[in-house]
Specification:
213 residues; 4-stranded antiparallel sheet; elongated; 51% helix; 2 domains
Length: 213
C-alpha cells in the first residue's frame, strides 16, 4: 500500500468534536455509520421474500375462490402436505431442504444479532473525528515492527482486528530478534495513534529464519 493510498483511506469524518466523547448526536450517528455495516441489504431481501410469499398466497387463494385450477399448488393441499411431513418426501430431499432453510435463517439471524462492525478504528483527536481502515493501521505498525526487528518488509506481517494486533515476524538467519522490543515498539506506535478501541499486541516469532541477501 502506497503512502497516497494510506492518506486517502484516512477519512476525516467531521470536525469540532471528539470521536469518542459522544456529546454531539449527529457526530455519533456519522461515526456509527462509518464503523458499522448497513443492515439495509438484508432487511430489503427479507422484506421482498415476505412480500412475494404473501402475494403468491393471495393470488392462489383468489384463484381457488373463483374455481380456477391453482398456478402451482392449492393452499389447502400445501397446508395438508406441510402437516403430514415427512411423509411423501424422500429423506435426501427433506434434509437438503432443511439445510437450505437453516442457512437462510442463520444468515438473517446473524445479521440481526451481530454488531456488523467494519474493519475500522477511530483515532483520538481533539479537533477532528478520524476513521481509519485496519489495513492502514497494520501498514503503519508493520513499519514500526520492521525497524525494531531490523528485517525487511517481506519478513513482517501484521493483522489488526478490533481487540488484537498480531505481529508475525520471520527473523533473518543468524540474527536475534527481541520479541519484547518488537512488542514495545508496536505498543508505542499504537499509543501514539490512540485507536478506539485500543487493541492488545501479540508478537509471533517464526522458528525458522530467512536467509539474508
Amino acid at each position: 500500500m502506497t503512502q497516497d493510498q494510506e492518506t486517502r483511506t484516512l477519512n476525516a469524518v467531521n470536525s469540532g468534536a471528539s470521536p469518542v466523547a459522544g456529546e454531539d448526536p449527529e457526530m455519533a450517528r456519522i461515526l456509527r455509520r462509518e464503523t458499522h455495516s448497513s443492515r439495509a441489504g438484508a432487511a430489503t431481501i427479507a422484506a421482498v421474500l415476505v412480500i412475494v410469499l404473501c402475494v403468491y398466497a393471495l393470488l392462489e387463494s383468489g384463484v381457488r375462490a373463483v374455481g380456477q385450477p391453482p398456478w402451482l399448488i392449492d393452499p389447502s393441499t400445501a397446508a395438508e402436505r406441510a402437516i403430514a411431513l415427512p411423509e411423501g418426501i424422500s429423506p435426501l430431499l427433506l434434509g437438503a431442504s432443511g439445510a437450505v432453510i437453516a442457512m437462510v435463517g442463520l444468515f438473517f439471524l446473524l445479521h440481526a444479532v451481530l454488531p456488523g462492525r467494519r474493519a475500522r478504528h477511530l483515532l483520538r483527536d481533539p479537533r477532528t473525528a478520524v476513521v481509519v481502515d485496519d489495513e492502514v493501521l497494520a501498514s503503519a505498525l508493520a513499519r514500526r515492527a520492521r525497524t525494531a526487528a531490523n528485517v525487511t518488509q517481506e519478513q513482517v506481517m501484521v493483522v489488526v482486528s478490533r481487540q488484537l494486533v498480531v505481529v508475525n515476524v520471520r527473523p533473518t538467519s543468524g540474527s536475534r530478534v527481541s520479541e519484547e522490543a518488537v512488542r514495545s515498539a508496536v505498543q508505542a506506535e499504537l499509543e501514539e495513534m490512540s485507536p478506539v478501541p485500543m487493541p492488545s499486541v501479540r508478537v509471533n516469532l517464526a522458528s525458522s529464519g530467512v536467509i539474508g541477501a
